[in-house]
Amino acid sequence: MKSYIPKRATVEPCARIEAPVRFFGAVRVREACRIGQFTMVNDRTTLFPQTAVGRYCSIGKGCEIGAPMHPVGWLTSNPAFFAVEQHFPEQSDLFPQTAFEQYAPTTIGSDVWIGSLAIINAGVSIGHGAIVGGGSVVTKDVPPYAIVGGSPARLIRYRFDEETVQRLLATQWWKLPPEELATLDVTHVHEALETLEARYDAPAPVRLRA
């Protein structure tokens, strides 16, 4: 299967992409990123280093995923004191450097929808099936199937009741071969769940991928 990556997009060689994915416009994928298949990323969105995005995600325009952190408890939050080579290479001998992790691993589960202009801080985990409202700033982990919004982002509600959420997570449907999903009625979640659960209980159950 072929991915759709325009010429304006920038993908670092060490990023791993599971085809097919679809990028629009000037998407930027930094080093050590991973993106699952059928994920869609819109124009001017950046995935910062060590960001992992699951399958079947929808990411809006102008988002920052895994946005770098700064040391707010130091005398200064300026990177001249922890990343001078990156930002001020000609002054690399001027300031002593102190180790600071700007890009903690960031995890976006599968079936996550992130609205345009959202910022996901480095080190945050977004659970499977979650929705992040446009323009939100996410500073803390988001539970599976939660809908969050605001700055900082807060819980608005869940997409489904707790029992349905647990059933969805148990199926791990995003790990199924696409051909298995093509036969489901995705517009009726409970009927789709019953179909999936029956397939898992069959004498020859379907196999999940990694």
Report on this structure.
With 210 residues, the protein is α/β, with parallel strands linked by helices. The two termini are 17 Å apart. The protein has two domains: 10-68 and 103-159, UDP N-Acetylglucosamine Acyltransferase, domain 1 (3 Solenoid), CATH 2.160.10.10; 160-210, no CATH class. The mean pLDDT is 96. The strands form three sheets. A seven-stranded mixed sheet has the order 3-6-9-12-15-17-18, with no helix packed on it. A six-stranded parallel sheet has the order 1-4-7-10-13-16, with no helix packed on it. A five-stranded parallel sheet has the order 2-5-8-11-14, with no helix packed on it. It is built from four helices and 18 strands. It has helices spanning 84-87, 162-171, 178-181, 189-201, and strands at 10-11, 16-17, 22-23, 28-29, 34-35, 40-41, 46-47, 51-53, 58-59, 64-67, 106-108, 113-114, 119-121, 125-126, 131-132, 137-138, 146-149, 154-158. InterPro entries: Hexapep, Hexapep_transf_CS, Trans_hexapeptide_repeat, Trimer_LpxA-like_sf. Belongs to the transferase hexapeptide repeat family. GO terms for molecular function: acyltransferase activity.
Offer a concise description of the structure.
15% of the residues lie in helices and 22% in strands. By secondary structure, it is of the alpha/beta class. The strands form 3 sheets. A 7-stranded mixed β-sheet has the order 3-6-9-12-15-17-18, with no helix packed on it.
Segments where pLDDT lies below 50 for 5+ residues?
A: none
Provide the number of structural domains.
2
CATH topology of the largest domain: UDP N-Acetylglucosamine Acyltransferase, domain 1
Major beta-sheet overview: 7 strands, mixed
Q: Give the helix level as a range of percent.
A: 10-25%
Level-1 CATH class name of the largest domain:
Mainly Beta
Structural Rg: 19 Å
Q: Structural class, please?
A: alpha/beta
H/E order of the elements? EEEEEEEEEEHEEEEEEEEHHH
Euclidean distance between termini CA atoms: 17 Å
How many β-strands, per DSSP?
A: 18
Query: What is the approximate shape?
Result: elongated
CATH superfamily of the largest domain: Hexapeptide repeat proteins
In DSSP terms (H or I, runs of 4 or more residues), the helix count works out at: 4
Summarize model confidence as the mean pLDDT.
96
Strand order of the largest sheet: 3-6-9-12-15-17-18
Q: Provide the β-strand percentage band.
A: 15-25%
Keywords: Acyltransferase, Repeat, Transferase
Organism: Sulfitobacter albidus
GO molecular function: acyltransferase activity
Protein name: CatB-related O-acetyltransferase
